[in-house]
């Protein structure tokens, strides 16, 4: 197993207090004068995914630069409440909220597009203490057409967290004062505990708005102690972890299609089934278990489990 890279505080990052064109070029690996051309729209692939969301993915030299900055940012220590990081998963995030208690959750509307170039510039200027011209160059590189974080870049997740770090820290303080467990997975915000009430959810949503972002009303939900709870694509029922019905359905449909498939189509379906079953076992398998369980086929009704606020 490969060794995890050493993490360090933000003030130990090569990006911290970065100033001067020469140091910029050494750390980022890009000529100062080449940045405007590097950031041009011709260095992005843009398409609309199956959910109707526009994806902007860097390629060519810009993709390599994004990977390098993303790697540097990934080595900065983040708080324990962050589960969208190497060595953790969405299932680990959900497991933090197991138990017979209320759960509240929300997420940030259009998280990456909401992180503007100005917000990224402010992060490099104020939190990283970069020189103004360096902060501007870094914000240009990290932004799609000088507008916002690209939705398909390897650096967007970490930049988005760091740019919104003050918001998440404020939610963590609110959760601690309310004796609640708080986790965040990208922009999925979850709190659990006896005091995870609709009133606390309203306070969380007000904090998000205070920091210049918006939460999704339709995804802002509260769950009673006894109801099944959907958290980052995992169903929690008391101390048990289960798969959502939609994932059971996909596994069943793939198995059914395999009964009549032949040739390349069969090979494709076999790979698909293997991946879906492996993912299901990762969700259902407790870190304490040695052997993963077989996928459970008990379906969980959620039509009245979560109430939009």
TrEMBL record:
Matching Pfam families: RVT_1 (PF00078)
Enzyme class: transferase
Keyword Nucleotidyltransferase part of the UniProt annotation: yes
Gene Ontology biological process: defense response to virus
Coiled-coil region: none
Enzyme Commission (EC) number: 2.7.7.49
Domain Reverse transcriptase span(s) in chain numbering: 82-234
Name of the protein this chain belongs to: Putative RNA-directed DNA polymerase (Modular protein)
Organism annotation: Thiomonas delicata (Thiomonas cuprina)
